[in-house]
Every structure is written in structure tokens, then in C-alpha cells.
Amino acid sequence: MNVNRVDLNLLVYLDALLRERNVTQAANKLNLSQPAMSNGLRRLRELFDDPLLVRTSEGMTPTERALELEPIVREVLSKVDHAVQPRKDFNAEDSSRVFRIMASDYAESTLFPTVLGKLRELAPGITLDIMTPSDVSFLDVERGKVDMLINRFDSMPQSFHQIHLWNDSFTCVLSPHNPVLEDWTLENYLLANHVWVSKTGMGVGVGVDPGDVQRLGWVDAALDKLGKKRQIRVFTRHYQAAMTLAEQNDLIVTLPTRAAQLKLENPRVVLREPPLAIPPLELKMAWSPLLQHNPANKWLRKIIADTSRELDGLEATL
User: Fold this and answer.
1) Dihedral (Cα; 68, 69, 72, 75), 10-degree rounding
2) Same topology for domains 3-78 and 170-279, yes or no?
3) Which of 194, 203, 260, 307 could connect to 171 by a Cys-Cys bridge, CB 3.0–4.6 Å?
């Protein structure tokens, strides 16, 4: 392919088509007529010698070649956009910007109190709109409608930028009157009743299958490697709710240590190390390539990354 044949507008069309999976919606997104977008798709098919989008029962479905091109096209357009944008510094002190952040309540309760304290000092006019994983789709993030994601992720689009924030161990939270404390062993841990808590995915959730160990997460995967299984009586997606349930005399909650430490001063619960080895979880921050070079977004990402490193220096231990 001769690069001189490539019209940059065609890459913009392809990006819109792959985001929308619909010719009409892609045309509306770019303020084009549908015939103009259809003509663009025809030229793209000729350029890449591939149909790129094929009509199926589920709508316009991208071909294998289109899926290969998607992250490349997005990166190219992001770099071009960065190159042509005028350089503007972000004045945090005078900003009244609203940042939209998807964060699990684990991240919200362990990381954001310190982040918010810094923001009140450095940028008192800034507002944070913190959304749950169920409020947001990866498509929202790709389009730049959400500034960043902070959570544990099983998977995410290849085009996203991401960094590691910290690793966390696990801790058990339970009532001091729970009889299992009389002999805190793995055997008795398995005989007890448990509260499961997690939210690693995106979008509206579905019910949990108690038999699907791989999807249950760190604790149950670790038990499965030992050939063991715990008795889960409650499934929840909220860490605060799980820790409240731990006050009941017959329930154990095994959750990330930084979250468990929030209950250190609560006399209605005690904290114990799990009677088995559980691999640490990883908290990440991710964002769209469209916002990679955005000055305001870069500023907030640095605040969050610096804060996480400071807190990570304070080891999460009992």
C-alpha cells in the first residue's frame, strides 16, 4: 500500500464506524450524510482489500482485519490530535472542571479520601463524579465520556492506557463472638458461612454462579487449588455492606486488607489473617487513548498515581 493513497479522513471514518458499528450513527457522529459515510466505507474496503464491517443478525460486525486495525487507527488518530492541539497548561487552582471517574467502592474508600484531601488544597473548584462499575461501559471510556477507571480488571480493551497503583493482601473480618475464632483453622474456616464480595467487571452485572470458581475470584480460586470450597451464603458487590454483614455472629468476610483496616476501630468485628495463602490483588488505573495527552486528565492521573505510591509505602498490615 502506498501511504500517499491514505486520506487521513478515511481513518477518522473507520474509527467512527468501529466505535458505532452502524453507518448512520457513525455519519451522525461526524456530522456527515449517510451517503458520504457509505462512500467512505467503500473507499476503506478498497484501501484495505477487506469488507471491514459485515452485516449480520447482530448488526454491522467487524472482520478480523478490522479488529486488528482498530487499536492502531485509534493510536494514530490520538497522536495526530495531540500534534495539532495548541499547547495549554492546566490551571488546577482556578479550574471548575468535573472529572468523571469509575471506581469500585474498595478504591473509593481506600484511595479517594487522601486524593480528595489533596484536591481540596490544590484545586478547590474541582468536582469529582465517582461512578460504580455498573454505571459505565468500556465504550463510554473509549469515547472519552469517562476520565478514568480505577478497579481490578480481568480484561480491558487493548487500546486503553493503564498503570499499576498497588497490590493488596487479604484479611478476614468477623464478629468477636463468632465461634470459629475458638479454633481458627482452615478446616473450621471452610465449615463456617461466608460473604462473597467483588466487582471487577464493567456494565450491568448478572447473577453469580456459585459453582463457577474461576469467576468467583481470588479467594475461591486459591481454595480450589487446594481442592477446597467454602460455604458462601451472601453475594454482594459492595465492600461496605460486606463489612457490616461481618458483624453477624455466623459470617466471615474475606476481603482486601486496605478495606478491612477501615474497621480496625469497630468493636463489633475483629480482623484475622486468612488460614490459607491468597495471591494479592492488583488495583489499576486505566483511561482512553483519546485522553492520553489531555492536560487536565494528565494532571489528575499524576495526583492519583502519586497518592497511591504514598499509601503503598504504608504497608497494609494488621
Assistant:
1) -120
2) no
3) 260
